[in-house]
């Protein structure tokens, strides 16, 4: 028997933890797992807000039934149609055949497309209200945060924002469900990694959504992933403002590929100068060992970036190529870029990295430093100069 977890007297957390899945969306590593959050309002009319990934449905159903027993669910609110939230729709519908599935005009065709039914659907529009008895639900569209049908649901009695993927995080909820029950800073990195890799491309729609929701009085943010937030509301909203505007801190992310150590040596020289010049936050990543999601997350945090690659088959090292392609696809803005490269017979890596930086309108520091064969004194000094100039840029920004 489950002990109900209450957001209020009649609103319950019925989410589940997933510690078995290795890759979120079959792309992003989950070293700390992930939570699929769903919420149940037990009022005159009973409403379920989102479902969970279908592999976790048994635990999910048990939690629901421990609260409402054999009563029926009247409404299923679908804020977002990705399978980690909507995957159990068919099972819920089979258990509660009279349930009305609530979504907007972009949601409902997806329900038919994924699940093959088009009855017992209730279309709602921006600002519509659904009366459950003691609780009133209002709906606000949040397109491209991060799918076109995404919306959020606001419960006006307890002032709870059910925010879909917005304000979500990787990581399971290990006993503590609410942010004030835990060391919330433990989730900072995973919240940023979630935002930067899942939502990060859509900074402008996020800004529009934040502006739209700015007038709501919010006591709790109940996201579809990660902690339920009731203490750090201003903090997480401020973080979303920063990330969606590509605002950064002083620091440098150095991402490199190196087959035999020559390019890595150039990285070490540059990093040492950055430290000598007072840059405290330096993160060095080998793109062949560290998944790009962790690198991208830190690029969203720190202003300075150094990319280093040998020429490989007349182009970039494949793992560096994959990283810059993702950054280009996301349209990441507002960074300083230093470029390092090495080659044996024909050098093209630094040219490709320069084209990448120019495509995103990043400010390129000095000329790229490219060495033929092993690192020699002249290029050693150029690495040091590049590191100093990048440090100067960052420190001037901080004044």
TrEMBL record:
Which PROSITE patterns does this chain map to?
FLAVODOXIN_LIKE
The molecular function terms of the Gene Ontology recorded here are:
electron transfer activity; FMN binding; metal ion binding; oxidoreductase activity
Record SMART domains: Lactamase_B (SM00849)
The UniProt record lists the Flavodoxin-like domain at 252-399
This protein's superkingdom?
Answer: Bacteria
The UniProt entry, under InterPro entries, shows: Flavodoxin/NO_synth, Flavoprotein-like_sf, Metallo-B-lactamas, ODP_dom, RibonucZ/Hydroxyglut_hydro, Rubredoxin-O_OxRdtase
The family note in this entry says: In the N-terminal section; belongs to the zinc metallo-hydrolase group 3 family.
User: What is this protein called in UniProt?
Assistant: Flavorubredoxin
Recorded source organism is: Thermophagus xiamenensis
